[in-house]
Design goal:
Low-confidence stretches: none
Shape: globular
Mean pLDDT: 93
Strand content: 25-35%
Number of helices: 21
Number of strands: 32
Distance between the termini: 80 Å
Helix content: 25-40%
Length: about 675
């Protein structure tokens, strides 16, 4: 009699299955519809191939396309696998290396045969067709357990030097698995942990697209050979792919770098890698945003401070950043450099300092000045602090990822009994700011303790529970707010809430955060005098709403496609003439509007009005006040709105001024 396993299902039922049974057998026993829909299985919490036999009693959850996150990761992994097989069949002699799933697709790194050279984007259409042939063959993807020596010998025999090298470096206790596609001499093999779908035919041949080719070093080391990395995007069906490609097309139109140049907002250049040169119009957006944030923080009881750019390395050692974060810091010697032509620039005796990558240790030093009483808490300390982080050159991206940035940073020092309410109040403040800035949708995530961390388990239990309680009591731990918990993604010193904005084309951006920290006050010996007259440690809440001004302005530009709200727009209106006879009136109108506090320019150039309209539209000027001889005589303006299909509206100058005042007032002042 064969051995029976007890398989527990999510609905609480238990099925008895004979030894050798698979999750696919359970799906078939439940019904043909589920058998067809099931893509993989979660067995005792681990995602596995649906054809992999049970080894013991197990808890089983079948994964279908409705489990979108798991399903997408599975199919993207399989598309990478199919890409590798297609490339090797199309271009014999190509070696394979790695091919993971990514956030919107997959990639695979190849070492092309020496006689053909690197792959190019011209190769992609042929590779796509070869991939569709692999999918159409509908070959089973069969998992096999091998010894590492057998895997090495197999790849050495077939000329796969990269795979032969890699397998011998895998942990000694790791099960080594190979996946086979096809039979006999035509079988294709890859070293892979899996899991995979049951067969290549489970993929939709119309739900992927290869997008680009780049270079990549083997194992990320510039000393190693250069490989060809082929990227693709992949989805569960053709409709999802089409929607994604439309988003990419729209994202290209909204690219903040392109719009920043067209609107004359900023530029970047090699002489200052990762730092932004803000032009007058761009910095005007910054100033408006900063003034708005300052008013919101003042109203919420924050006290603004300013702290040094450079601090002694010993301070960073005390805080823990020197050990955990030093590779991302810019360090400088605390001595006069050698001015002679001979000899080293810096001596071996130099003391080291660092540009601050964050503001928190300096805020603790302010907190420690004098004696703080429990009655003084909570203390909300804010700083628009300029920070520097040594990001790799290849990771820099416009103003979205830079080396020099300004955080809308603040730290709340509070008592244990105040913490949950402070987090709730922060969530409400953040909610109002996001809505004022045009973002009605955001998700809240709780990032939990990472493997490498400071502090006791009890401390982490308490900190995580408090943040969870604050979100629950604020009513935001719901599907509407995308609430979920993220194991292992907290900072090394604290769990954190993350706030992810959704922009106009459906992309998400992690911007706001609040972290509950008991480690830094302990390491830097911060304390207050409690009601009992004894010293107590405050809890330190690290928090930001925009994240950094640079990145958030980039997000705003892309969210609004450059058509910023009137209160943020650098030039709110241009008074443009039709004929030169109206030049004097145009200058008079512009002067009156400027005197009333509006950002207005006059365009009296000897150009056709259609040329002026087109030029100012490209610069994203929201309002064009057109004046000609008739308007000059009647004291009116003809108002054209950027992007509006409606005909221009003629109104008096006083009416135009009232309209501007209503629309150009910042949202917090409008509400007041």
């Amino acid at each position: 009699m064969s051995k029976m396993f007890r398989i527990s299902l999510p609905d609480g039922t238990v099925r008895e299955m004979p030894e050798g049974s698979t999750p696919a057998d359970v799906a078939a026993a439940i019904g043909p519809g589920l058998a067809k829909a099931a893509l993989a299985a979660r067995v005792n919490g681990e995602v596995r191939d649906i054809m992999r036999p049970f080894e013991e009693d197990a808890e089983l959850a079948l994964i279908t396309a409705r489990d979108e996150k798991d399903a997408l990761e599975l199919v993207r992994h399989d598309y990478a696998h199919v890409l590798a097989e297609a490339v090797q069949k199309l271009y014999p002699g190509t070696q394979i290396t790695f091919g993971p799933a990514t956030d919107d697709g997959f990639y695979y790194d190849f070492a092309p045969a020496p006689d053909r050279g690197p792959f190019t984007e011209e190769d992609l259409p042929a590779i796509e067709e070869a991939m569709r042939r692999v999918i159409a063959a509908d070959e089973p993807l069969i998992r096999e357990v091998w010894s590492r020596e057998d895997v090495r010998d197999f790849f050495a025999r077939t000329g796969e030097t990269f795979k032969a090298e890699w397998v011998m470096e895998l942990p000694a206790d790791q099960t080594i698995t190979m996946y086979r596609s096809g039979k006999g001499e035509d079988a294709w093999m890859d070293l892979c942990r899996g899991p995979h779908l049951a067969s290549t035919g489970k993929l939709d041949p119309q739900a992927f697209k290869l997008t680009r080719v780049s270079g990549a070093y083997w194992r990320g080391d510039p000393k190693n050979p250069m490989l060809s990395r082929i990227y693709g995007t992949a989805w569960l069906n053709k409709k999802q792919l089409a929607e994604h490609l439309t988003r990419l097309e729209e994202a290209a139109k909204r690219d903040h770098r392109k719009l920043g140049a067209a609107m004359d907002l900023f530029h970047l250049q090699a002489e200052a890698h990762g730092s932004v040169f803000w032009h007058p119009k761009g910095f005007l957006i910054w100033r408006q945003l900063e003034a708005y944030m300052r008013r919101k923080l003042d109203a919420a009881g924050y006290l603004e401070v300013k702290t040094p750019q450079v601090m002694d390395a010993r301070q960073w050692e005390k805080s823990g950043h020197w050990g955990k974060y030093r590779e991302n810091m810019f360090v400088i010697p605390d001595e006069v450099p050698n001015t002679e032509d001979e000899g080293p620039l810096v001596s071996d005796d130099a003391e080291w300092m660092a540009l601050k990558p964050m503001n928190c240790p300096a805020h603790v030093l302010i907190f420690k000045q004098g004696i703080t009483s429990y009655r003084d808490l909570p203390l909300r300390m804010a700083e628009f602090g300029c920070c520097h982080r040594n990001e790799p050159h290849g990771a820099l991206h416009g103003i979205m990822r830079v080396r020099q940035f300004t955080q809308d940073d603040a730290h709340i020092f509070c008592r244990e009994d105040q913490l949950v309410q402070e987090v709730r109040d922060f969530c409400d403040l953040l909610d109002g700011i996001y809505r004022d800035l045009g973002f009605d949708r955001y998700a809240v995530k709780l990032a939990l303790r990472p493997d490498k961390r400071f502090g006791s388990e009890e401390m982490w239990d308490q900190a995580e529970a408090e943040l969870r309680e604050a979100v629950v009591s604020s009513g935001r731990a719901t599907p509407e707010f995308g609430w979920e918990e993220l194991p292992g993604e907290g900072a090394f010193y604290a769990p954190k809430l993350e706030f992810h904005l959704t922009d106009a084309i459906g992309r998400t951006w992690q911007v706001g955060t609040i972290q509950s920290d008991r480690v830094l006050p302990e390491r830097l010996d911060a304390s207050y005098v409690g009601e009992d007259g004894e010293r107590h440690r405050p809890v330190m809440l690290h928090r930001a709403i925009l994240g950094t001004f640079e990145r958030f302005i980039g997000i705003l530009i892309e969210h609004f496609a450059g058509n910023l709200p009137l209160w943020l727009t650098p030039v709110q209106a241009v008074v443009a003439t039709i004929v030169s006879d109206a030049d004097g009136y145009a200058n008079e109108v512009a002067a009156k509007l400027q005197a009333a506090g509006f950002r207005v320019e006059a365009d009296t150039r000897n150009e056709k009005i259609n040329y002026k309209v087109r030029e100012h539209s490209l610069a994203k000027v929201p309002l064009l006040l057109v004046v000609g001889k008739r308007e000059a005589e009647e004291g009116t303006v003809a108002v054209r709105r950027l992007g509006s299909e409606e005909r221009q509206q003629v109104m008096s100058l006083d009416e135009a001024m009232a309209m501007l005042r209503a629309e150009a007032t910042p949202p917090d002042l409008r509400q007041a």
